[in-house]
Design brief:
Elements lengths: L9 E9 L3 H16 L5 E5 L3 E3 L4 H5 L9 E3 H4 L4 E11 L4 E6 L4 E11 L3 E3 L7 H4 L6 H19 L11 E5 L3 H17 L12 E5 L11 H13 L3 E3 L4 E5 L2 E4 L4 E3 L2 E4 L3 E3 L17 E2 L12 E3 L4 E2 L1 E2 L4 E2 L4 H19 L13 E7 L2 E6 L2 E4 H15 L3 H16 L29 H15 L3 H7 L5
Parallel strand pairs: 1-2, 1-7, 2-5, 7-18, 9-10, 9-15, 10-11, 17-19
Antiparallel strand pairs: 3-4, 5-6, 6-7, 8-16, 12-13, 13-14, 20-21, 22-23, 23-24
Length: 476
Amino acid sequence: MEPELPNSDNEHTDVLIIGGGFGGINAARRLDRLLRRRLKAKVTLISRTNFYLFTPLLAEVAAALIDALHAVNPIRRMLKRVRFIQGTVLKLDAKAREATYANENGDERTLTYEHCILAPGSVTAFFGIKGLEKGAFTMKTVGDAIQVRNHVVSLLERAESLPPSKRQHLLSFAVVGGGLNGTEVAGELFDFVLRASDDYASIQRGDIRMVLIEMRESLAQELPEQVGSYCKDNLQSRGMEIWLSARVTGYTNGLLEIRDGREIATETVIWSAGVRPSPLIAGIDAERIEQDDRLPTNEFLQVRGYDNLWAVGDSAAIPDAKEGTYMPPTAQHAVRQGRHVAVNVARAIMGKPLEPFHYSSLGMLATLGRYRGAGRVFGIPLTGFPAWFAWRTYYLLTLPRWDRRLRVMIDWTLDLLFPPEIVQLKVERLHPETGADLGVERRGGGGENQRTQAVNATRDSAPSSEQSARTAKPAP
């Protein structure tokens, strides 16, 4: 049973884990097992959401290949002995060994600790480019994926009722960032839009325009050059435009601008070109690496200058003794770091010597759409169907809990047999008097202004509440 929350605003735990992503949840799960065996400690995990998001499946959620709920796992069902708090850590005082967080009731509490594992992840970096933060979509959360999917279906519905000369901007899509993530999003989303367009009588597949923009000279730089070339050739052969050595300079009034003068009129820009460490770590007094905002650690995953502060994942710069550099912020590294830091924290509590962290990447994989993939496994390049099959097999096996694996398997099987879902899962509120869709902010060129104008126009034309009260019939 999970312990009850104390009434005091000040609490104490032996081990505090901040963040429920790959690093944090794997640290918590390993400590959960150690608590069952020999470890005597109180462990607390604080996460903004009450679920663990399996981010490799986000593109599949956006492309309607799997249900959004199947890409997440409830944290409380993953942990039996570790206490879980849904909340947001506002401040961490590493010297005083205390964290201030806000729970779901909005109450601020202070939690003191003996050891803290930092795994807050990263946030999207827009690099100050005009209009991107307000107008572009990202692919960091399950909400992002659902929003992209709803947005794409909405554009198809709008385009269906317009003549071809007035709808090209609605059927043009841009993905910025040609690394593995961006290439994967572009490939999956392009397949989804093409297949979904078959349900719209006036829209032809040739009307769909997808542009993948990368500032470097090749795609998928994480992979060997020949694999990156395969990605480019495969996507182009399916009708996608690839713009290399192209730097985005702004996105305003529905126009995406490139430094070399090219422009794209579009209401859909998906930004996948950069992240930065969580702002939470900015206030931690620790030695930093030049031009790197991450927290540097030693080989035991302790933040430099501390013996009780540990860091893993995107916010940690962890030395790679074999390569003589720092480990990349990938999911597979964060998983192993989380498990290892849990063991080292347990060893520190029990007074045992710490073990250095070593890990060599197994490889990297990406799906480019239906039956197509690219990657490298154990140094062997893979492309086409073998890479796609390896991608699905690997991530299916690494997805936590068998009920989620079975659900994803069923989703994938149904996708092979039936066309993608084109239902808009609207969760917006309706205006209490007019029934107008109050909605949420809709990103994209001019989208927010259109929604606001529509709602205001509806409100202006609707009778006031006083007028409604005068004309309403009395209840029987």
